[in-house]
């Protein structure tokens, strides 16, 4: 149950109000929105998260599959949801790609011979069990990784015959420390998002350069940043097929660009990128930039990349402060 007033914090910015695609994706049978996978790894998927009460868009999630050094498939999950009440809310992958109504998403995703989808039983040991999303009453943010499910084909694939969906619950996931108890896995359902593959847009990625002319850019994902950087959408994807990019920094709306090049910190009239001062804007540690990308075709999609900021190291290297290791 959300107060309508807090829901409107998302809608009033009109970021998602014309995200008709998002809605289209959700209402289409999974197969029509899904594009065939052509590689076993580095698959991506998105979910548009909508209120169970009003069907209003509250946020989105991105999923990226990668192989560990031992070949284990891991998925990086990023989710931002606005309008959740203050506190923690359970997030799980549920067994069916259906959100209308939210109950139709079924129980917790848990394939296999011993699958047990009852949310409050075998919890938190279902394949689809994730961690809580933390909300400050307006914004909610969650990043995690899981190796219990895959996007690519296989026995743990989220893209089984009936697909899968995220459910965000009204209450905190207690992880059921005392075994099965009604509501211990988060209780009633607050929001839902069908998980949809987006394999056609591999070139749609965030990159970062040290130069305002965007030279020598590298992938933003897993980059280690210091001082001033220039983050933008890779020009590998045809820029004329994009109509608008809305950037988020750690879940908060940061910049909206309606013309290429799509710079995270904005573009100068000279066409150079404006600098993003990591030292002023972020503490050292891991951060995430996400982008909602509206395509000229009318579709919307989302990308996110987590990176590390380390300005301390730089300070020691320059000898401006005493290095405690000396
Ligand atoms: Cu659940």
Low-confidence stretches: 1-41
Question: Largest sheet, described in full?
Answer: 10 strands, antiparallel
Look at the structure and name the CATH superfamily of the largest domain. Superoxide dismutase, copper/zinc binding domain
Q: How many distinct helices?
A: 5
Element pattern in H and E: HHHEEEEEEEEEEEEEEEEEHEEH
- CATH domain class of the largest domain: Mainly Beta
Tell me which ligands are bound.
copper (II) ion
Structural Rg = 20 Å
User: What is the global morphology?
Assistant: elongated
Overall tally of structural domains: 2
Mean pLDDT: 85
The total strand number stands at 19
Distance between the termini: 56 Å
Outline of the structure:
With 326 residues, the protein is mostly beta strands. The chain is built from 5 helices and 19 strands.
Task: Describe the model.
- With 326 residues, the protein is mainly beta.
- The protein has 2 domains: 4-200, Sandwich (Immunoglobulin-like); 203-315, Immunoglobulin-like (Sandwich).
- Helices cover 10% and strands 34% of the residues.
- It is built from 5 helices and 19 strands.
- Strands 1, 2, 3, 4, 5, 6, 7, 8, 9 and 10 form a 10-stranded antiparallel β-sheet that branches. Strands 13-19-18-15-16 form a 5-stranded mixed β-sheet.
- β11 and β12 form a beta hairpin.
- The longest helix has 8 residues, at 4-11.
- The protein is elongated and about 60 Å long.
- It starts with a helix and ends in an 8-residue tail after the last helix.
- Mean pLDDT is 85; it is low at 1-41.
- The protein binds copper (II) ion.
- Copper (II) ion binds next to β5 and β8.
